[in-house]
């Protein structure tokens, strides 16, 4: 099972890139975010789903609280990875065919995924959005990590789609050679 950490400045194209990857991977691709559970809690508290600077700070602060309290966001992702592994095992599907994308901002948390899962780290770069002022530490720390792969999203959607395909081919060279050839 390949674990890929995705990061980038807000509006850099992370979701679009991962979407292109998932289109290629079909049922073997999954995506989660370390703020998925945080967003559910925030909605319960009245958050309307917007991502204004104030909203982004609220989500970041809430994630910090849940992390400090009981490491909830990280443990939720671990649980999702374990579920995919168990389902693959239950149905006799090789779990090594799966690629799981994890949206994660904080460098310390990214490093935990790298250490625990030998994750590949990817930063999506888009110059037009990188100099925007950030309202929270998670967004402002995006570039405080040495990523394995940099994807430049400065052109058309077709270019980003091609970058996703090339990324997957490089990531899964062994898988493609073993399972397709």
Q: What does the model show?
A:
Helices cover 55% and strands 15% of the residues. The chain is built from nine helices and five strands; from the N terminus they run E-H-E-H-H-H-E-H-E-H-H-E-H-H. The protein has helices spanning 14-25, 36-44, 53-70, 72-90, 107-117, 127-130, 137-140, 157-171, 173-179; strands at 2-8, 29-33, 99-103, 120-125, 149-152. Helix 1 packs across helix 8.
How are the SSEs placed, and which strands pair?
Elements (H helix, E strand, L loop, with lengths): L1 E7 L5 H12 L3 E5 L2 H9 L8 H18 L1 H19 L8 E5 L3 H11 L2 E6 L1 H4 L6 H4 L8 E4 L4 H15 L1 H7 L2
Parallel strand pairs: 1-3, 1-4, 2-3, 4-5
Helix pairs in contact: 1-8
What's the gist of this structure?
With 181 residues, this protein is α/β, with parallel strands linked by helices. Helices cover 55% and strands 15% of the residues.
Measured as a percent range, the helix fraction is 40-55%
Radius of gyration: 17 Å
Q: What is the mean pLDDT?
A: 93
Oligomer: single chain
Helix-and-strand structural type? alpha/beta
Shape: globular
According to DSSP, the number of beta strands is: 5
CA(first)-CA(last) distance? 19 Å
Largest sheet, order of strands side by side? 2-3-1-4-5
Q: Please provide the ordered H/E string of secondary-structure elements.
A: EHEHHHEHEHHEHH
